[in-house]
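Weekly modeling sync, notes
Attendees: S.R. (lead), two postdocs, one rotation student

Agenda item 3: backlog of single-chain predictions. S.R. asked that every request posted to the team notebook include the full sequence so nobody has to chase files. The rotation student volunteered to paste the first one in as an example of the format we agreed on. Action items at the bottom.

Example entry:
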Amino acid sequence: MAEDLMVEGKKLMNLGEYDRARDLFNTLISREPGNAEAYNKLGIIYARQQDFEEAKKYFLKALELKPDFSSAASNLGNIFFEAGDLDEAEEYYKKAAVMDPDNPVPYNNLAVIYKKQKKIDKYVSFYKKSISLESRRQSDYYDSADMKESNKPGIGKYWWVLGIIIGVIMYFLLSRR
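Predicted structure, as returned to the notebook:
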């Protein structure tokens, strides 16, 4: 039952039906007060509606309930980033990366901060890390899909294209200093 509420709430959230999704997540919390994911989802809804103070409360509650909740830490970093507090955003993105070192999102978010701060070496390092982790995640997806080799998409032959694109982007970004 709780899982059904979560699935339906996520679906409504993705459709932009925030009031209905909020109702479902609040119902879920009334049934399971320790459900950190429901608090995190409520925080996302408030953030999407530009109510950053309310969003912050829900992300903090999610982290209180589940101190190693990488997604909530990263989302809290996003709140600070939106507020222009790059130091606090960086702190939460770093926490998120420690909590889930295989998640590319916090590394990408750190790269964005370092780019804004014109710390190009750090930017490149964290951006490469995020690309590497995302690539590994995609590879793991195809490996775990239990697909026959002949049915797998031919992504291997496109790696050189991806390399060229990344090279051009890096050249463009570094030459704009």
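Discussion: group reviewed the output briefly. The CA atoms of residues 37 and 133 lie 23 Å apart.
Action items: rotation student to repeat for the remaining queue; S.R. to check formatting next week.
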